[in-house]
Amino acid sequence: MTLSGIGELPLFKRRSSGAEELEALLDLLPHPTLVADGRTGRVLGANAQAIQLTAFTRRELAELDLPSLIPDLTLAELAAAGESPLKPKKLITRSSRATSVAVKVDDLGGPERWFALSLLSPNQPQQDPQILEQQRWEAMHMLALAAQQKDLAACLRQILQAGILLTAADQLLLYLPRGQGVLGLHAATGSAADFPATLAEEDLGHLRTPKLWQSGKPIESALHKVAHAAKLNYVATTPLDLTVPDHGLLVAAKREDQPPKSILTMLEVLGASAATASLKAAVLSSLEGELARLGEAHEVSQALQEYAQDGILFTDEDLKVSEMNPAAESMLGYALAEVRGRPANDVLISSQTLLPVLEAALENGKAIELGERKLHRRDGAEFLAFLRVVPISAGSARPKVAVLFADLSEHEAFHLQSQQLQNRAWLGEITAYFAHEVRNPINNISTGLQLMQVSLPEQDPMQEQIKRLQEDCDRLDHRMKSVLNLSRPLEHHPEPMDMGEFCRLQLERWRPRMARKNIKDHLQVAPDTPLILGDRRSLDQVMTNLITNAIQALDDQVDGIVGIKIFPDPENAGFVDIQVSDNGPGIAEDIRERVFEPFFTTKSNGGTGLGLPITRRIILMHGGDIQLDSFPGGTLFKIKLPVAPSAEGTVIE
After folding, report:
1. What is the number of H-type helices and E-type strands within the chain?
2. Contacts of residue 468, Cβ cutoff 8 Å, sequence gap at least 6
3. Most buried by CB count within 10 Å: which residue of 100, 183, 427, 498?
């Protein structure tokens, strides 16, 4: 309980009250108060605020009279003052330092003529509770409006002005960080000449909590030392943020009056307001920077979408079209305004629906690479595209999906043209070799046959030679036909194929011939082998060449075996491995590297030497590879063929 004036203490009318009761009652008053005998001027009692103001103890004050404390206040003036406030007077403290106070005198009555002297601030001698309350509300209103200032500096100035009203201090100073543990003077109300411009880290050690220093108390920091030198009556400090003291310091000081009881609480309120304003300014600055960065990123994104050659289509969380770049509009034949809000599956039309892939990307938050797919334009025309599906903001409240697709039509045409050019170059090489190999034998045979026919009778023994020459002609004719077949462009119509079933049918077709030669077959297919993408007629020629070679290698083998093994490529999930083997004598090391050369053959029965080159050409046309591995006791052809694209695509991390 705190009373506003001496008039609220009726117990002073009773002279039976003891000294302790008198002092307890005086302590209820909000300002320094003395009780004196009007006849002798002797001090009869003092409250705690008066003890703090004068720095005398109660016992020392009881031994003094009023002229010792307030020299220019006479007993006659005291008796004539009544209840009217007096002009400012000098108060002599225990340290002989004079301070200015306004003395308000209340006559307590009675024969002893007791008087109560309220020692008030000369700037506000009445200390009226209503005025104080009004000032506090005005200060709180200023604090509430400070956040509406246009910049941080103006906001902090208004907070300090509100602080002057709230604390009645002469000076309010705000220190903010300047880096490396140093606080610098950022704003001040009142003169700041007595205070340092910066506070080093070692100066802040004793100021990490709210602290009040008063004249005559021990000096604990650089600020206290400055205040003592400037003869300030008190200095109150508080960190702006009690959890992080280094974020700033608020300082209140006054030269003459005593601090209000709630000075530290008031400073904490002001400090919290300043900290909030600083944090708000920092957050706004960060947001402005982030908005600028996002704006720049948006401009870059728009530019990339505008000028990207690949099509980009964005969907919302319902997999409906939300955005589409010009390249996508050009490829698909739709304008964005026509398809916005329509299901993406109605715009990206393929033989295999893309809806499961879009849903999987949205649900799992992982990018999905579909590879090459046929898409349909608005006019129904089909084009080859390479597709990727990428989730955006996966896990958020409104995730999206981006579909990226590149038109491979030109690439496909260029690839076909390049392949044709390669075929022509290869055909030219074969033709040149063919001309070199065949022209001279044909001329020789033709000349010999003509001479023999003209000069020799039919029964001449040379007819045997003519027969052998004729056989050479037949052999060359066969080789000519093979060359012509090789020079023709291959027709390629790939489709998903089950290589296990395909090879089973191949072995069934060759099984009667192998049985006559006492050759067994063995087919092994891994259960998880995917379908391959291949041309059935071309691969039939590949398997015919390889199985024929294996059977011929086992002509003299008692327990010959032709084996086929099919399994997923362990190193690349996009391929299937097919291995065709036999347990024949193998191929000599010095000729292994030549088996894929045109017209190279080791067969004694006059093979063309084109079977394996054609096989290799077909495999490469499929985008695969073929390798030979041979050793004494066996030969192994290892083929890789690409996996057929599945509806679910290949998930990439």
Report:
1. 17, 25
2. none
3. 183
Q: In 61-70, which positions are buried (b, 16+ CB within 10 angstroms) versus exposed (e)?
A: beebebeebb
Model confidence at 320: pLDDT above 50: yes
Give the phi and the psi of residue 644 in degrees, each rounded to 5.
-70, 135
C-alpha angle 625-629-630 in degrees, rounded to nearest 5: 150
Q: In the structure encoding, which two tokens stand for residue 25, read together?
A: 């009652």
11 contacts 29 by C-beta, under 8 angstroms: no
pTM: 0.39
Neighbour order of strands in the sheet with 114-120: 43-46, 33-37, 114-120, 98-109, 85-92
Q: What is d(CA 189, CA 195) in angstroms, rounded to the nearest whole number?
A: 12
* Residues sharing a CB contact under 8 Å with residue 300, sequence separation 6 or more, in sequence order: none
Cα dihedral 115, 120, 126, 127 sign: negative
105: left (phi over 0), alpha (psi -120 to 50) or beta: beta
Structure tokens at 570: 């362990």
Q: Which residues contact 574 (CB under 8 A, 6 or more apart)?
A: 642, 643, 650
The vertex-491 CA angle with 485 and 493, nearest 5°, equals: 150
Choose the weakest-confidence range: 84-88, 132-136, 312-316.
84-88
Neighbour tally for 431: CB within 10 Å: 13
| 260 contact partners, CB below 8 Å, separation of at least 6 | 167, 168, 266
Residue 11 in tokens = 């117990």
Q: Please name the amino acid found at residue 171.
A: Q
Structure tokens at 114: 């007791």
Q: Which of 328, 280, 279, 325 shows the shortest CA–CA distance to 306?
A: 325
Task: Give the chain's end-to-end CA distance (angstroms, integer).
Answer: 71
- Residue 644 is given by DSSP the state P
Q: What ranges make up the beta strands (E) of 303-399?
A: 311-315, 321-324, 349-350, 368-376, 382-392
Between CA 322 and CA 547 the distance in angstroms is 56
Phi, psi for 327 (deg, rounded to 5): -65, -40
Residue 259, number of CB atoms within 10 A of its CB: 23
Calculate the CA dihedral of residues 570, 572, 576, 582 and round it to 10 degrees.
-50
**Which single residue is written with the structure tokens 């000519």?**
480
Q: Are strands 182-189 and 368-376 parallel, antiparallel or unpaired?
A: unpaired
Residue 292 neighbours by CB distance under 10 Å = 10
pLDDT in tens, 521-565: 999 999 989 999 998 888 988 888 899 888 888 887 888 999 999
Q: What percentage of the chain exceeds 70 in pLDDT?
A: 78
- Of the candidates 549, 557, 563, the one whose C-alpha atom is nearest the C-alpha of residue 600 is 549
User: Is residue 238 a contact partner of residue 247, using CB atoms and an 8 Å limit?
Assistant: no
Torsion of CA 109, 113, 114, 120, to 10 degrees: 90
Q: How far is CA 339 from the centre of its chain?
A: 31
What pairs with residue 118 in β-bridges? 33, 104
* pLDDT for the residue 85: 53
Q: Name which of 424, 380, 384, 431 is nearest 405 in CA terms.
A: 384
Q: Of 16 and 402, which is predicted with more confidence? A: 402
Q: Which residue type does 187 have?
A: A
User: What is the distance, to the nearest Å, from the Cα of residue 129 to the centroid of all Cα atoms in its chain?
Assistant: 58
- Residue 628: in which H helix or E strand, if any? strand 625-631
Q: What are 169-172's contacts with CB under 8 Å, separation 24+?
A: 169/236, 169/252, 169/253, 169/254, 169/259, 169/263, 170/253, 170/254, 170/255, 171/195, 171/251, 171/252, 171/253, 171/254, 172/250, 172/251, 172/252, 172/270
